[in-house]
């Protein structure tokens, strides 16, 4: 818990900067230095900067299908439409054609998200002015109902990949409770709903280890990986895929991290607080199947449940030894200055792999 929501909001920016490395590039450096007193201003700053850069490159244009009556033929003649015009004594040909247009789904989402953001009362005037100015270049783009957008269906290609981060920000704004904050004390879970924050939390931790250790230390690997079931008869039909959030590997050791972002870490039964049983069963299953896969190689496999710290009085910091493997339960306190968050993540690597991160 922290009363300084500017720290909390800035941490969201840092988490996003690991999840979307483009935010670490020079055009976005000014955002990191700005103080933000609410989440709307942070996302407005990112969108204003990103859309401005996109306008310099040019808005994405996609082929759209059009059918319209014209006095000059374009594309293919639509016979049923043309016959109808003749019967109604219209001197027009119905044409069926495609054209490159800025009025496509990607630009429609951006425009509609900005319009939604501009309606927020706590948005600073400087961001309003910048976004309104940029929207002048979207005059040919239609506004859409954002509730109908299926982000999972959107596919990015080489010519529109620059939209990936912008649409991810838009998705957070649309699908999460970002547009309201609680009065009084502020904490990270107050800004994003659990499902969206959980995804960001997982991706942030994975990318932090990939960038801070994977790219700097030879032999260190950080990735989300699948673990095959170790089956006696090889028959695995209907078994779920074991997909880890984060798998760290270095020097003959593997640490499987299951990142959890919940409002409550504990489950209560008969007035007794315990960990969520499903979480422990899951990490135990991952560890034992991975351990069986590397049996006889001397490779050590450990597991960790890494919860985002909550306001609960009981804070887990436990290490268990189960059937020859170490499984720990820890928390990551997101409600403090980011260097402290990084220090917590570094300590996990130091404790498990003996690697001490030296920062420049």
Structure explained in plain terms:
- The protein has helices at 5-19, 29-33, 39-57, 79-87, 105-118, 125-135, 164-175, 194-214, 277-293, 338-353; strands spanning 62-70, 76-77, 93-101, 221-223, 226-227, 242-243, 246-250, 253-260, 266-269, 272-275, 300-308, 318-322, 325-332.
- It contains ten helices and 13 strands.
- Strand 12 and strand 13 form a beta hairpin.
- The chain has a six-stranded mixed beta sheet with strand order 4-7-8-11-13-12, sandwiched between helices. A three-stranded antiparallel beta sheet has the order 1-3-2. It has a two-stranded antiparallel ribbon with strand order 5-6.
- The chain folds into three domains: 5-60 and 104-190, no CATH class; 62-101, no CATH class; 196-353, Trna Endonuclease, Chain: A, domain 1 (3-Layer(aba) Sandwich).
- It has 360 residues and is of the alpha+beta class.
CATH topology of the largest domain: Trna Endonuclease, Chain: A, domain 1
How many strands, what sense, and barrel or not for the largest sheet? 6 strands, mixed
- Looking at the overall shape, the CATH architecture of the largest domain is 3-Layer(aba) Sandwich
Mean pLDDT reading: 87
